[in-house]
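Two folds, back to back.
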Amino acid sequence: MFSPRLISFAILIALSGCSPDSDIQSQLSAQQDSTTQGVSQEANVTAEQQLDAAVARFAVNFIKFQPAMATSLNLSQAQAGHFQRQLPDYSSPGVMAFKQQMQQAADELAAIDTSSLNDKQQQHRLINQVISEYYAGLESFSAGYIDTWAGHLPYIVNQINGPLIDIPAILADQQTINNFNDAQDYLARLSAFALMVGQVEAKVADDAKAGVILPKALFPNTLKFLANFTAVPASEHSLVTSFASKLARAAVNSTDRSPAQSIEQSPSTELSPEKIQALVAKAVAQVETNIYPAYRSLSEFVAALEAKAPTDVGIWAQPNGQAFYQHGIQYLADSSLSADAIHQLGIEEVTRITKEMDNILSANGYREGSVGERMLMLNQEPRFLYENSDAGRQQLLNDLSAEIDLVMTKAPLLFSTLPPQDVVVKRVPIETQAGAAGGSYVPPALDGSRSGVYFINLMDMTSIAKYGLKTLTYHEAVPGHHFQIALNMQQTDIGLMRQNASFNAFIEGWALYAEQVAFEMGMYENDPWGNLGRLKAEVYRAARLVVDTGLHHKKWNREQAISYFAAATGSTEANVASAIDRYIAWPGQALGYKLGMLKIVELREQAKAALGDKFDIRQFHDLILLPGARPMSVVEADVQEWIASNKA
């Protein structure tokens, strides 16, 4: 088992993001002594050393509880211990222990006397404290779990995310297998995965006893996902086929090494064809005899719960749900606005953007009916659709890859710093596409060994309009999520937790802002339909402010939210139903996009007005991106300081 006491001095530095000349021995002593006394009370330890040690402990304990995240980041065993066989504990005691550990980290950071810290150190303490509070979740809401990306979520099993979806993806796509020992680790993790599914079932049962049950409307797609997971023979499941592919590549790489590069292998560990076949057979047995039965057991339990599920879909209908939604506004929207104010802002933004869409439609001969009705007409025109076939899907993937290449040729006009990692386009796996978003982004490995991935959902090709795909690509890939997250990971001086910080309003606000940057980069030049797609995407995010607050604060029902969202975005009700279900499952997450974007635009306009000819958009983008994801209040302070220093 991984112990934080075994962490190396060098890794303590890397995890904390402390200065190179810090007293390492004091940091280690602070880490060890804190088990018996608070770091702020240790004798002869400076506030800077306390901060470094507290941040290091925070990162070490986070990884201890989240070994799957260590795999996603491709951390080494020297950095994170032998985590490759372990998975998070999603039982009620496991979730509670993680929340308590994160709250302890927050309390420790809050207790540090900041009077002797410089501005950069004070900011470092504040950001890490907010991150730890984010992962501590809402103490008065025991249901749900802590997601390493989205924070405290109320339903551990649902149609769109959760450990039953996320962990298999990590195992199949991100766990590396280069040799026989790695293969043994993977098989051990398959065994741990089966146990984890049982923990999740127990957590669902405990939450139900506390009165928190997934809304009834989300059961059909949730049960469909669970059924799809076990629909294929075990030998054809991605947990097995990905394993076989990795083993085959590892065997080829082993034989391709020169004698000087070769690693000594005993006959028992050599990846011969016979050994690979035996390893794959063990994986098939794990999936068939342990994992599939665990999923089926959980599926039966969830199906039985449906009769008790609430018909009201908003989080307000769950015990202490109103406080939970306010928690979402605070951490996911990063806003001090009330739910009512956010709702009204959304209505105003929808009105403004709709007028711009009307101008484009009218200028191109589409003048009859509401904007939403005219957008529906466009969605049915063959010129805006790909062929609904494997060939059409491949053409779509090829076109998105070409669009990424084109953005990268123009990006230096507006960006001084570009991410070194590539981003690749992939289709959402078929077994999870029913509940998945239209597009999503998975970050690269922390060490750059794995590219970022832009996933596109190709389940229903008739619902994918060509004119909207450019904007989706700018949001999910470049210059959106990939620029922000990959560059965030490059900032090695800010520590592990800040390198991977999940500030939703900053991250999603940047990605929505990136759509506007692409417009300013000339990506929509002579393409009114593409620009219409950009505006449709923006009105989509504005309408989210309305429906999210409508569902979770104003007590809208699902049908009311679908009707409004379809009309506001020019979509069919069938096409927006999955989006509304997403907002039901993730209270508050959808608020971050527009609120974050509006803040970045507001700060940019302030800087332009204050600096005039001295304003440099490339420097502004470095200012936003290079310090890493952070609370919007910290971003605002950074911009004000930048304005002051450039005016002098």
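---
second:
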Amino acid sequence: MNVTRAIQLYLEKMIASAGPGMKMLLMDRETTSIVSMAFAQSEMLQKEVYLFERIDSGRSNERLKYLKCIVFIRPTRDNVLRLQTELKSPKYGSYFINFSNIIPRTEIKLLAESDESESVREVMEIYADYLPVNSNLFSFNIPTCLRGLAWEPDALDRSTQGLISVLLSFKMRPAIRFKASSAAAQMLAKKVHEIINKETALFSFRPPEDGAAPPLLLILDRRDDPVTPLLNQWTYQAMVHELLTITKQRVDLSGVQGVPKDLKEVVLSSEQDEFFAANLYSNFGEIATTIKGLMDEFQKKVHDQKKIESISDMKNFVETYPQFKKMSGAVNKHLVLISELSLQVSKQQLFEVSELEQEIACRADHSTQLQRVKKLVSDEKISLHNALRLALLYSMRYERHANCGTSGLLRILQDRGGRAHIVPKILEYISMNARQELFNLVKITDAVKLTRNLIKGLKGVENVYTQHNCVLKETLEEVVKGRPLDSAYPIMGNELPYRRPPQEVIVFMIGGTTYEEALTVHRFNQEGFKVLLGGTTIHNSESFIEEIVAATAGVPFKHSRSLQQFHGAPTGSA
């Protein structure tokens, strides 16, 4: 299962259906992102697509009848209205219309009535209604999906449509399970289930053979694991997203000092960048070694390029130059990225911050951790964002501790000008399920702590920064081992539960997923399982904090007696 390849196959089919000749691609805002994440522009040019336009932006009225227009848009009401306007006064010679998801037949009829010049040659549904981030990771690019801890209606609709598209991409009619304690997960599961039952013709796939379990769609809630998005990451892709932010495979480096003009924005795509594909899950230490190897190889090629002494050498130079130039670009790009990551790690004192984050997430040692958190939160060298993350992690872990020091941390944050008012919000955001898990961890005995420390010592110091396991890892272990899930993850509809483990699993995280969880899925797939991960968005700690603020808007504060004494923190928006 490869979401990038699934999107590519649909787009190749869409372009091929228009036949040979010069073509243009008419898209909307979302499908533009889908196309750009699946193919480089140079690859589209090779497919005779020479012009790209947006249906939802100002366009020229110049008639280009010699061009075939391939339309690739989402089946929204606004897009259908815009396309009706286009067909009433066609700018291109012929139109090949492709919707990224299921389109109601009533809308097709409206388009047919608008096509008075009979310029439409074909109308198709292609199920490419999601962003292919990695081969095993997809997103719907919904920055915030809850308000008042309930679904935003538009976000619910978009998530439903997107999941239907993913299922149709892989020809799956799955069993649907959802987190029992999450009303949002249950609602999304119900919506998806209703559409599958309504569109029986589309979902009439051959059932699994030999009594095997059907594929599984597992719908989870970010509120059950608010710790993972708050932790610093130490693998390449995750570090870039945390410290520089990846937006639809692009990284804005315009604010980085001394960056060459052609590297103000760089693309990080495993399809278009071999080095990135090979190293996106490598840890920080490995990357430094690997980039040195890449530089050594490049310098050798530079030396070889200088030795042009014959016609044969010149011919070889011309043939290898494109690859040489591509390698040069990769070396420069990744050198800039690694250098900036290294600078930020040092500048933000992330080794010290990350070590404490991991200790809070994985061990119960209240007195020692509180002193260390106070020290770092008070330290002017520690950024306000990192200070806030430490306060958030501490407040969740020790909310019910008799000597909880959250109110004191909030005063320190407030005195430094930090956003202290966000800390109470996470105590509203975190689910009762996650709160109970954290509380249980606080009660770890001294003997267990001693054993954990011993194991940690044997594994080596580098694991101080990677002790934490996301909740998804434990959940997937339950799934792939075929353990009973009925109480925690009930099945939607009347389907009988299968006791055999499913061969294919799609996990969807309401409230956004993370690159740490993508790494977890990658490791399961390396062991021979077939797992895809998706989320409403892909979070780093900053975007997740904004998700918390949006999700808790309008929710009255009612948790944590440790904060009842604290009246100084501002209550305004973030």
